[in-house]
Design goal:
The protein has about 450 residues and is mostly helical. The protein has a domain of about 120 residues: Cytochrome c-like domain (Cytochrome Bc1 Complex, Chain D, domain 2), CATH 1.10.760.10. The chain is built from 22 helices and two strands. Strands 1-2 form a two-stranded antiparallel ribbon. The longest helix has about 55 residues. The chain is flat. Keywords: Heme, Iron, Membrane, Metal-binding, Signal, Transmembrane, Transmembrane helix. GO terms for molecular function: electron transfer activity; heme binding; metal ion binding. It comes from Marnyiella aurantia.
Length: about 450
């Protein structure tokens, strides 16, 4: 009897332990660590709630157990080396391979069994989003919107007060003028009134008397008019600060600033070509094939997650990408980008010459002239701090004088192996020809001011 009671109690304890761990098939992982490992290794091809390059992984452990009667050992083998698992003749491994267009999953031999258990625990019981993320995301957007609305209302109130005050002042001035006019009429004698009515002034006689003053004023006005026209002509085509809206919103602050994407990853021809072209939509799809929604912490004031997600959908519409089937439909739409930087046809500018040959020289020169605004990428010397711009704008004048000033102050990198060899016989001659440069050779000394360099 006592023996039966002992076994009964042990059985109850075992059942309670089994029920307490029944939320997961294995319950041996750390979901928090699994989330970090998932983000580092899996998000390029997988998501929890939708199919991407690979299947959705939310609840994959229970799904495999229910549909295929496979346990976590199979998942361990698949994740570490799926090619070997397929080669062994595993039926389901080959079915998955065929189903996803024979796209081979990368092996992860570096992941330990515990790492994989952590990842699987995350796919089964993902932790709730941290409150801080909400505050940085939608919460921050709501706060920004409220602050903007409050500022707009305050500005409207101030404008109303100023307008009413101006109207009151104008009314007071008119009233004072009327009262002064009445006082003058009351104090004016009949003799003075008759004299004022009979007095007349000839404009012609007045001009003859002060003709030299009139001519001087006319000449001065003509000079000012000529200067105004000349100044207006000189600034035709200068659009510093120009930042048009684009058909698809693209924030350089998010891509180049927050995510540290190199400029030349998208603008590849800027380094080796004359023109820095606008990237094709295929370049965008290199990343956005797997990034169908915005999950970043940064939000531009006045914009929210829904706005960014909608802009990503515009990329899919332009390229004909169907995120549900992970395939191209062939139905594309052209994107009419608005050009921002546009040199005149009579100006020759080679990006490669500046980005490759002049990279270090331009960065060094800019940082010497702007110690409080140093740059680390040569692109910023002309285009400004693009990595801080939500909407790209023209950061400089891009006039002929602006270019010439740069050529006169930028030192040629004589430590460059090409320049050192090419200008070897010219060093002494250039130093004698430009003694004020104190031995420093600038771009203007090697032809940087020749007309034919930029005009043809």
């Amino acid at each position: 009897m006592i023996s039966w009671k002992k076994h009964y109690k042990k059985g109850l304890v075992a059942i309670m332990l089994l029920l307490s761990t029944g939320a997961s098939v294995y319950a041996q992982g750390d979901a928090k660590k699994g989330e970090e490992l998932f983000n580092a290794n899996c998000t390029a091809c997988h998501a929890l709630d939708k199919q991407m390059v690979g299947p959705a992984l939310g609840g994959v452990v229970d799904r495999l157990k229910t549909e295929q009667n496979l346990d976590t050992d199979w998942l361990h083998k698949w994740i570490k080396d799926n090619a070997s698992l397929r080669a062994s003749g595993d039926k389901y491994a080959n079915e998955v391979y065929e189903k996803f267009n024979k796209t081979e999953m990368l092996p992860f031999p570096n992941l330990t069994d515990q790492d994989i258990d952590d990842i699987l625990e995350y796919t089964t019981n993902p932790p709730a989003p941290a409150p801080a993320a909400t505050a940085d995301g939608a919460g921050a957007s709501d706060q920004n919107s409220a602050a903007m609305l409050e500022a707009a209302q305050a500005q409207k109130t101030n404008s109303t007060i100023i307008l009413v005050s101006l109207i009151a002042i104008c009314g007071l001035l008119v009233w004072l003028l009327l009262k002064l006019r009445q006082l003058v009429k009351l104090q004016q004698t009949e003799e003075l009134a008759g004299l004022n009515t009979s007095r007349s002034v000839s404009f012609g006689a007045l001009y003859e008397k002060y003709s030299y003053v009139g001519k001087a004023l006319l000449g001065l006005l003509a000079l000012f008019a000529f200067y105004g026209i000349w100044n207006w002509l000189m600034w035709i085509g200068v659009y510093k600060g120009y930042k048009p809206e684009q058909p698809i919103y693209f924030s350089h602050k998010i891509h180049a600033g927050e995510n540290k994407i190199d400029c030349q990853l998208c603008h590849s021809s800027a380094k080796y070509g004359k023109v820095s072209e606008i990237p094709s939509m295929n370049v965008c799809m290199n990343c956005h094939r797997n990034i169908s929604e915005y999950n970043g912490s940064y939000m531009e004031p006045g914009k929210d997650k829904a706005f960014y997600d909608a802009e990503i959908q515009k990329i899919y519409a332009a390229t004909g990408w169907d995120p549900a089937t992970q395939q191209y439909t062939g139905k594309t739409q052209p994107v009419e980008w608005v050009r921002i930087h546009n040199m005149p046809d009579f100006v020759y500018f080679n990006h490669a010459q500046h980005v490759v040959a002049g990279e270090q020289a331009i960065i060094s020169s800019h940082n010497k002239k702007n110690p409080d605004n140093k740059i680390d990428v040569v692109c910023k010397a002309c285009h400004g701090a693009v990595d801080t711009m939500n909407v790209v704008q023209m950061a400089n004048d891009f006039t002929m004088g602006w270019c010439i000033d740069c050529h006169r102050t930028t030192e040629v990198d004589m430590n460059n192996s090409y320049n050192k060899e090419y200008f070897q016989s010219l060093h002494d001659k250039l130093k004698k020809q430009y003694p004020k440069k104190e031995g420093k050779i600038t771009v203007d000394a090697i032809g940087g001011l020749e007309c034919g360099k930029c005009h043809y």
